[in-house]
Every structure is written in C-alpha cells, then in structure tokens.
Amino acid sequence: MSNPHYKLYPKKHVTVIKAPFSGGQGKSGVEDGPEQLLKSGLLHQIESLGWECSVADPLEGLDSAKMKANVEDVYERCKRPQMVSECCERIYKAVETCHQQGSFPLTVGGDHSIGMSTITAFVNAHPNGGIIWVDAHADINTSSTTCSGNLHGCPVAFAMGLDRKNWPPQFKWLDALKTLVKPEQITYIGLRDVDAGEKKILRDLGIKAFSMYHVDKYGINEVVRMAMEAVNPSGENPIHLSYDVDGIDPLYVAATGTPVRGGLTLREGLFIVEEVANSGNLAGLDIVEVNPSLATTDIHIVDTVNTGLSIAKCALGDTIL
Ligand SMILES: NC(=[NH2+])NCCC[C@H](N)C(=O)O
Ligand SMILES: [Mn+2]
Ligand SMILES: [Mn+2]
C-alpha cells in the first residue's frame, strides 16, 4: 500500500479544531479530550506525516461558569440547548473556514453533539459529499424521540433538519443553513445500540447502515467498500469521517461516556480510516467522546488516547508498511 494522496489538500495543511465541549451529555471530563490528545503528541505526529499544522480554538473565551450555571436549561426534552447551540455554531464556523482555505479540518472533541456542525459545514462546502459516521450509536434522535435529552444523541437528526418544528429556538444558525445533510449522503459503521425511535427513522428514510452484525457477516473490508459506495457511488466525491471512539470496543477504548460491548476491534476501527484515506477522497475528520476522567486505570487512559491518536494518523496517511 502506497501512501495515500489527498486530492482536496495539495497544500497538506491541517487545522486541529479544539472542541472541548461536554454539554451534549451529562458526564464531565469529555471536555478534556482535546488537551489529552495534544499533550500526548497529536501535533508532532501530524507533522511527522508531512503536514503543516495549526490549532483553532473556537470555544476560547466562552464563560465556562456561565455554561455550568446553565445546566438547568432545558427545552422540551433537550438538555442545555443554549450552550450546545452556541458552541456548535462556533465550531461550524471554524470548520467552514478550513473548507474555504483548503486546510484539512480535524475536529477533536468533546462530545459528539458537535457532529451537527462538522457535517453541515462539510455538505455546505461539498454538496455532493458523503459522510461515514463510525459509532456504536446512530445519534439520530430528534427533539421528540430522545429519551435521554442528551444532544450528543441527536446531531445527525439536527444536521438533516428532522423534526425542525420542535427544535429548541436557539438553533437559528442551523435553521438558516442553505444545505443540510440528505439521507443518501450518510452511512454508519459499527452500530450496536440504536434506540427504537432511531431504528424507525433509519428505516423510514432509507439510510444505509452497517451494524456490527454486518461487520461480522461480511467482514470489515467489504463493509467499508459498501459504505464508501453508498455515500460516494462515483468514487470521486469527498468523504467526511465522523469518528466516535465508542465505535471501537471498550476493550480498547474504555475511557468514553457511553461504552457498548461487542464493538469493532482496534484493527477494524483503524482499517476504516486507512481505507477511506486511501481512496484519496477524505475531506475531514472528527474524533470525539474521549473522556479521560472515566478511566478506572491509567492503562484505560493510555489505550483510549492512543486509539484517538492512531485514528488521526491513519487519516493523515500513516501506513503500516
Ligand atoms: N455520541 C454518543 N455517544 N451518543 C450516545 C447516544 C445514546 C442514546 N441513543 C441517546 O440518545 O442518549
Ligand atoms: Mn457513540
Ligand atoms: Mn456518537
């Protein structure tokens, strides 16, 4: 396997967008994800793959005390809509800037609510693009179907404009976007914990999804091929990868907020990234839900953070040989 090329990024410039955000769910600590990855050598590793690198911090200056005081903020079922909307709007703009400038957006979370920003910024820059969402969860609950009220379980529904009439009023920036994600533009790999309401949405909209059942049945190579074909039938369109580390089994990724057993092996998880990078179409990456404070041993932190680093490296062209 030769080193992948990056059709969209001849400048080989990456912007690491820090998204130290936890308001899309209830467990604190996930806001430390970006710092942990940076502290463990993310930038150096990217640079050693031949990319120039800068860091964007769109949430800088937000009043964290005020955000904490907002924990009581609930709209219908949705928790902390004000905070989630404000942070997601800032992250949208940071990703949009990357696409405009031809810099690879690597968004590091934080919880997965920020996926609503990265994938909408992606389709507004690349209306024919495809999205692969690697996750144990479908994150496609609407304001009406969510049982937990956690917006990290809803970003795909928001990015698709589902149940828009029941959105918390704060999401005006999202409501104003020209392009939203269409059902045929997104597919999943790694699902194994999908709520009943989400199953209905996936079925009704005909969204292609590859669960762990499909990984077992067809093998990861065939699943990645089918996923790329689903969202990029011509083979020529850009692909965004939104990677929730809980897609990988908790054996390898223990330090995450909603672990589910029976997941991807570490190699299956990395193969997805290697293969999409190898297509030459990779347009952006999110790495989310690394929560160091949920580790019960130091090994858990090291394993989880190293998995995050490996995902980044595979995306940016690291190959085994
Ligand atoms: N990004 C995640 N880890 N999402 C977990 C979502 C879990 C559940 N489906 C919910 O809506 O609350
Ligand atoms: Mn998940
Ligand atoms: Mn997720």
From TrEMBL:
Annotated Gene Ontology cellular component terms: cytosol; nucleus; ornithine carbamoyltransferase inhibitor complex
Catalytic class of the enzyme: hydrolase
Coiled-coil positions: none
Record key words, sorted: Arginine metabolism, Hydrolase, Manganese, Metal-binding
InterPro entries: Arginase, Ureohydrolase, Ureohydrolase_dom_sf
Enzymatic reactions: L-arginine + H2O = urea + L-ornithine
EC number: 3.5.3.1
PROSITE patterns: ARGINASE_2 (PS51409)
GO biological process: arginine metabolic process; regulation of ornithine metabolic process; urea cycle
Pfam families: Arginase (PF00491)
Cofactor: Mn(2+)
Keyword 4Fe-4S: no
Keyword rRNA-binding: no
Matching Gene3D superfamilies: Ureohydrolase domain (3.40.800.10)
GO MF entries: arginase activity; manganese ion binding; ornithine carbamoyltransferase inhibitor activity; zinc ion binding
Pathway: Nitrogen metabolism; urea cycle; L-ornithine and urea from L-arginine: step 1/1
CC cofactor note: Binds 2 manganese ions per subunit.
Family annotation (PANTHER family): ARGINASE
Family membership noted in the UniProt record: Belongs to the arginase family.
Protein name in UniProt: Arginase
Organism: Pichia membranifaciens NRRL Y-2026
Species lineage: Eukaryota, Fungi, Dikarya, Ascomycota, Saccharomycotina
